[in-house]
Amino acid sequence: MNVTTREESNQGQPADASHFTGPASARPLHRTAEPNPVSVSLVRFETGTRNHWHRHAGGQLLHVVEGEGWVQGRGEPQRRLRVGDSVSTAPGEEHWHGAGDEGPMAHIAVSIGEITWLEPPDSAS
Fold first, then answer.
1. Helix (H) / strand (E) containing 39
2. Roughly how many angstroms between the first and final C-alpha of the chain, as a whole number?
3. Contact 76, 41 (CB under 8 A)
């Protein structure tokens, strides 16, 4: 068993800058490799930061725990996210998510399968 305290969860590692439009951090909470790769992390986006378009082989679940932000699926309009909102993407569904312009946003991300990173979102997306 592993317990991550609130203080520990706030001490994430910088996210790979090549996949984000600005500063973000991630704190791994749980990982498994078998029978399918699953990663659970607390991800924090600084004000205005978004990740690039991407997809997960097995889909993804996001649950907002702090602040407000945005999510968009390919070919769909942007949707605002607030504390308590959850987003579920289907396997292979292309999407991006991140903080709004008013402040940072944090969510728990449950990612299933390999991730494929794509291009940055348009500022007008």
1. strand 38-45
2. 42
3. no
Q: Using an 8 Å Cβ cutoff, are 19 and 50 in contact?
A: no
Q: Say which amino acid occupies 74.
A: R
Residue 60 pLDDT exceeds 60: yes
**3-state DSSP of the chain:** CCCCCHHHHCCCEECCHHHECCCEEEEEEEEECCCCCEEEEEEEECCCCEECCEEECCCEEEEEEEEEEEEEECCCCCEEEECCCEEEECCCCCEEEEECCCCCEEEEEEEECCEEECCCCCCCC
Please tell me the pTM assigned to this model. Answer: 0.91
Average pLDDT over residues 24-52: 94
pLDDT band, very low/low/confident/very high, at 64 (cuts 50, 70, 90):
very high
Average of per-residue pLDDT across 2-15: 85
Contacts of 80 (CB under 8 A, 6+ apart): 68, 69, 70, 100
